[in-house]
DNA sequence: AACGCGGGGAG
DNA sequence: CTCCCAGCGTT
């Protein structure tokens, strides 16, 4: 014997682990080939389509993205058309998806790709990573799924699946946990015959089977490799987060109608819903009385409502909104026809308010003489 | 390392 | 109602 027994034992164990790992990978990929959902961004692949899909899918459920992705691609079929588009129109197409900064990053990334890379999406994760809005996950997802690069991906699904396979109940937000997950994903993708398909399969499993609550272990193709299931702790992974207290903000929207038109303003360049349209809205830590709302309004807006009768007040979710009829002829602010706002980017709550006002408000027009 | 960003669905 | 979700950029 050339080697001491201890070394042989270790080598045997390592090869056994590797063999089990390839069985697992094969079972997962076979399941994915059989059960993969038919999603709009699967099928005809391109770097551009993947870039759009991945941007939309960040923090957003697949069902939400399905509705928007097709319309977005139809409006901006090529990366050049997206790069040449007006930001407001990009935001309008993004409307309802939330996290609007993603849309601006995507727009900026398209411009960079057109100007610096001849309109061709980079194929290396390291290069993709430099684009605005493209982080470690997104770069690796595009590089592996579209271009077949052997890059590991870790999103929330992967983190949960791997934690359960290994029965690790560490807090998912800890940097040590994240590092372990990336390391494990790297080992796995190194052994996968098709890196892109494996990455997609891992995420798909987390999305449809290995769900955060009530995982469908009876339908899981790799249940027999799952240590959490064996130990009966799959529902306790990941562990619940420590109480995160969120301070809430009350929005008071002031709808001012005149002659079938509504007064709108555009939000500032920074913060929530930046550069999107809304009716004038006051934000406060606590619910405000009507008088306080009026007092907080910018002077030009306040002038419009000060001497007019209060018309209507109701609440939609956490937004209280007030409807006034303005008789003043002031031309300050931007008046838009209530049915002519489809092309303006607005948050969902704001758009819903206008829809409700349009449906329920009595004729707020006064007379033709009011129209300027 | 912690926080901000925004929707929708579940409980 | 409240809680949950989970990538990227900023601070």
Jot down its keywords.
about 375 residues, Endonuclease III, domain 1, Nucleoside Triphosphate Pyrophosphohydrolase, 2 domains, 7-stranded mixed β-sheet, about 10% strand, DNA-binding
Account of the protein in words:
- It contains 15 helices and 7 strands.
- The protein has 372 residues and is of the alpha+beta class.
- The chain folds into 2 domains: 224 residues, Endonuclease III, domain 1 (Orthogonal Bundle), CATH 1.10.340; 121 residues, Nucleoside Triphosphate Pyrophosphohydrolase (Alpha-Beta Complex).
- Strands 1, 2, 3, 4, 5, 6 and 7 form a 7-stranded mixed beta sheet that branches.
- It starts with a helix and ends in a 12-residue tail after the last helix.
- It binds a DNA duplex (11 and 11 nucleotides) through helix 6, helix 8 and helix 9.
């Amino acid at each position: 014997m050339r080697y001491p027994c201890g070394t042989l034992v270790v080598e045997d164990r390592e090869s056994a682990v590797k063999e089990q790992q390839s069985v697992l990978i094969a079972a997962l990929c076979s399941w994915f080939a059989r059960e993969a959902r038919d999603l709009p961004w699967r099928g005809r692949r391109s770097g551009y389509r993947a870039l759009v899909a991945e941007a939309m899918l960040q923090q957003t459920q697949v069902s939400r993205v399905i509705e928007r992705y097709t319309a977005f691609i139809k409006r901006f079929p090529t990366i050049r058309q997206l790069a040449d588009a007006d930001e407001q129109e990009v935001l309008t197409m993004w409307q309802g998806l939330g996290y609007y900064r993603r849309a601006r990053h995507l727009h900026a990334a398209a411009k960079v790709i057109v100007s610096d890379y001849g309109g061709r999406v980079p194929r290396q994760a390291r290069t993709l990573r430099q684009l605005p809005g493209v982080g470690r996950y997104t770069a690796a997802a595009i590089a592996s799924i579209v271009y077949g690069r052997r890059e590991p991906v870790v999103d929330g699904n992967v983190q949960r699946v791997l934690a359960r396979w290994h029965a690790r109940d560490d807090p998912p937000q800890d940097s040590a946990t994240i590092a372990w997950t990336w390391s494990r994903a790297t080992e796995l993708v190194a052994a996968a015959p098709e890196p892109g398909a494996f990455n997609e399969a891992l995420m798909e499993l987390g999305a449809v089977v290995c769900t955060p609550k009530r995982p469908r272990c009876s339908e899981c193709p790799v249940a027999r490799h799952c240590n959490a299931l064996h130990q009966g702790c799959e529902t306790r992974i990941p562990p619940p987060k420590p109480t995160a207290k969120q301070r809430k903000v009350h929005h008071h929207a002031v709808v001012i109608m005149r002659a079938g038109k509504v007064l709108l303003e555009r939000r500032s360049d920074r913060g929530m819903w930046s550069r999107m349209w809304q009716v004038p809205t006051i934000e406060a830590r606590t619910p405000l009385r009507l008088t306080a709302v009026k007092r907080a309004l910018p002077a030009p807006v306040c002038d419009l409502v000060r001497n007019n009768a209060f018309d209507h007040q109701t609440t939609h979710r956490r937004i209280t909104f007030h409807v006034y009829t303005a008789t003043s002829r002031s031309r300050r602010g931007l008046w838009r026809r209530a049915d002519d706002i489809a092309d303006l980017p607005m948050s969902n709550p704001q758009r819903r308010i206008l829809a409700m006002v349009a449906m329920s408000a009595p004729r707020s027009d006064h007379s033709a003489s009011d129209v300027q």
